[in-house]
């Protein structure tokens, strides 16, 4: 078990490194020159040369890679992702601010989505063709056909503009409030640490619409998967046998859910990795300064260190999420050997 | 017996499956009475509703089916009971054993927990007590090492062991009615006999009512007091077993009796050892497979035999005996580790696959699963024509004529030619496979369990067809099967395999009339003849084997049968046995049998 985890981690680190190096070369192969964005209009030869030198772009590609990795001073191996060419602060510190916003958003969305999808999926699998099932089908047609930012805009229109029950879609907190001291950069947690319940309530309030939007989207595939997986287990031989053995309903329900869980967990993992950067549209609509926003800005500004940093961080997080889910699956299903 | 004495009686029992707006009726207004102490065999083709009936007797239907009508158990309608009352009857008063033991167990929970769950659902036992009870129960159904096995997960059990675990669950609460849905279909014949004997004893001792759903007339003849035949969700015949065998009323029943050949004995029996030219010779064939953990599984060990023109060899054994692998090695679907295969004086095991291609039209095969071996997207005409396209230079018209000739040869009609395999019955599919195999006029056929996946009536038809083809075409073939009565009807010579080795060889007559090896004797003894006048339960069976077949990965040092053999001595456990000739064309791998024959 421990050996398995260590091996997975070792392979994962190599994978992450491989991805980062690949990204390193690919963005440098783009037919766009980051220097021109920095020196402004009508630059002199000299200022271009200076800028190239300042960004380290006058070195050979290989030397640039070595610098990035940390063979000359600070780099990936020493825990530094370099300095953003746009803001001048370290990439790590910027990710430390944007990442928690995104994680907070998607974890809450997943919790909400799973809490909705699993019970409804179970109920509809039990009664295919029932009223709930038909409703779910309608939802699938309806929700699946529209992009998430559109739903975000509709929710803002309805709940903020028309009904006025949701806060303005501007960031994580009410603009009138001072943010609690940054400890974890998760606003919800920081406000609790600071004992600032006004800020906590405001942060929670600001999460409602973005979470509603994201989970509205996530529920679709999760619900479908729950339904399919549940109806497969429900029509399985062993559930029938448990009924025939006169086991209690609760006990049978537990067995069914446990057996149906594996594909749902796998799907959750895949969606999670996707959402890390895929939540960008929702972040935009609600002006949340998240990782997706940061990544898009980095690419548009040709901010190479930031792009490299974001991709490395996302691959490392995905690595841990997948590992965690695989261990969870092995815990649920004894047929999955963890050696 | 009158309905009032019935333990369970159904009136107007109906099971429907909704498909959109259509209702698919699988059990149609059915009335059935079951009495204490009576063992009833329920027969019917697949799709006749037997399994659905077995479940419906407990008020259950496979998701999303709906049960209606009356199921009166001790005079009270199960379908009107509340959940708790019904739950107390299921698994407590009515026990169920299903067809697929391993699928019936929750794959995520260990066996001990599953047994104790059922036990606890019907008693007030504590978790610890239930665990102790689970170990007792496993031991009582003959699982050695029960303390360790309670912690095993279903996928770690063999089919036989999973079946026993299920039995121990069904019997944990001593039911009044036991419903067994093809309880032995996944088991080997010697294990099947063990299981049925034990069930019969339990039913007699405790005066339990038993309903056995089966496709095997042998089980009915040997163990059942009464036979019920279903067709299209209805009962078409409900008789006392002996009366049924003497005079079946329905066409289907008559066909079953006729097909089972009850009473008829072998026809091929005593053709003398022939001097026709040799077609196939196999010497010292050996094959192992690598399994997880770097170990090797011994599939075939030192198999040697030859087949002469016009003769047929039956390769008999239980699952895992290596009989199928022998066929695959000859067909070059796998390469042997060592040994030789000669076809008409030419060695074919070491030639390149390209060179082997020219023998493909001479050596053909029919496999067990008829549907899997046919391309589902091709019309039958193309399926049968394919070998002609590959191996002959015939014109289009000649091929068309040959295809029609083949179709009629296997007893089918031209109108199936444009159909696709999916719209044929299993029996018809298997005939198509046979027609395809015969297309190039092969000199040698390998028939790998061609009858095993067929329902009883189709199986009987297939055997009759093979028999007539054998006479008309002078076919030369290996017939691989675990079904001894079929082999006896079709084969001149027999080789019995057990755990990768041939343990006994001889002509059909020799082996069937005087089996020599203890394994052969046990195998013959576990054949359930379709004759209620000589039931296995009325005989005293001496050659019964005990326990499970050892793993082919960790084979014992001495005789492979020693651990199960009633005659085993120390010498058997120490010395590996060699196949020794004890007469003309007759050999056996057992020193005791050799001594006895002298």
From TrEMBL, chain A:
The keyword Transmembrane applies. It comes from freshwater metagenome. Keywords: Cell membrane, Membrane, Transmembrane, Transmembrane helix, Transport. The keyword tRNA processing does not apply. The chain crosses the membrane at residues 9-30, 103-124, 136-161, 203-223, 260-286, 306-329. One of its GO terms (molecular function) is dipeptide transmembrane transporter activity. One of its GO terms (cellular component) is plasma membrane. It is a multi-pass membrane protein. It is found in: Cell membrane. Residues 99-329 form the ABC transmembrane type-1 domain. This is Unannotated protein.
Automatic annotation (TrEMBL), chain B:
It is found in: Cell membrane. GO terms for molecular function: ATP binding; ATP hydrolysis activity. It is a peripheral membrane protein. Residues 8-257, 280-524 form the ABC transporter domain. It holds the Pfam family oligo_HPY. This is Unannotated protein. GO terms for biological process: peptide transport. SMART domains: AAA. Keywords: ATP-binding, Cell membrane, Membrane, Nucleotide-binding, Transport. Transmembrane segments: none annotated. GO terms for cellular component: plasma membrane.
